Each structure stands twice: as C-alpha cells, then as structure tokens.
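User: Um, any thoughts?
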Amino acid sequence: MTYFEFDNDVRKHGHLYLVGVDEAGRGPLAGPVFAAAVILPPFFNDERIIDSKQLTPAELLALSDVIKENALDYKIVSVDAPTIDQVNIYQATILAMQKAISGLKHEFHFVLTDAMPLSNLEVGHEAIIQGDATSLSVAAASILAKVARDAYMDKLAKLYPQYDFENNKGYPTRKHLRALEIYGPVKDVHRYSYKPVQDALNKQIKLF
C-alpha cells in the first residue's frame, strides 16, 4: 500500500480532510523539539514525499516547498529546551503537536500522528507506528518539522560554532560531546535534563 492509498483508506470512513502530525528533535541534546501539522488536498499525491529520514537535505528542502505550496493549511511550532527540561521530552512533544494542530485554520475531520497518542482532540485520531513511513500526510508533516528544525539549528550554529550544530543538529556526536566537555552546556540551548548534558555540567562545576 502506498502512502497516498493509506490516507485514502482513512478518507473512505468519512474523513475528507486529514491532519498529518509529526515531530523532529526528540533525541538531540540541544535545541527545541519541533512539530508540524499539515492538511493536504484529498486528491493530492507526490510519491517523492516519504519518511524524512530517507531524504537528502536537498530533497527535504525541495519537498518542503512543494508541501507548503500545495497544502490547504499547515502549522509548524516548537517547544524550547527549558520547557523540555521542565515537563520531559515526551510531554513537550505532545504539547508541540497539540499547538500545531490548534494553529490550523482549515477544517479537518481526523488526525494521524506518528506513534504519539493525543488527547483532548475534537475529532478522532490514530497514532500510527512508523506513521512517517506509512501515511502521506504524516510524511509531509515529518518533512516540514525536520526542515524547520534543521534551519533553526543552523542559526544556532552561527552563534555557537564550537558545538558543530550545523552538522549534528544537536545530536550527541563525538564532536558535540567533546565540545560539551570543554565548554559546558549553553543555557536555554542545551537540555539539562539529558544525562550527557548533566555530566558535562557536573564536570564544569568541579573545575570551578
């Protein structure tokens, strides 16, 4: 079954306008978690839109533009590192997804998420395991979220070049972990609740 066929099967149950929702950035040590919600036209299909993890940076950028140009509506939001530390990454991801959905202006009848069950929705929803590799709407959301987050991390890279954010996007690469050991974490950028960041902070405290 293709991504488009999956969505069409859902529409056959009377859900014409579907919202696809996905996140980017649950695993990194730094930066916000992003979420995107997108409503595609019922008969729109582009077989290049697949799981964002399978796409090159150039493909991601091009498809992000295609999605934005064709979507009936979309919303991209983020939840920052201090909030992630306060409520945990799971709750922060749910918050981001709910904010993205609530920001949509176009009517919708059903919500599809990538594995994350949501509550307090006014319509039905399904949390699909590997939804970004199953549903066209969720795959489109995964692309929007990833492109937006990568762009944000590229901006952070210019402010904090020592952490190599332009390449690691906040993930715990060897170079990023080494920079944490040397320079310590950056307030409001790094996620202090994540163990590698805590370890780096503790080393800095001992040094001073």
Remarks:
- The beta strands are 18-24, 33-39, 73-79, 110-114, 124-128.
- The chain has a mean pLDDT of 96.
- The longest strand covers residues 18-24.
- Residues 3-156 form a domain with the Nucleotidyltransferase; domain 5 fold (CATH 3.30.420.10).
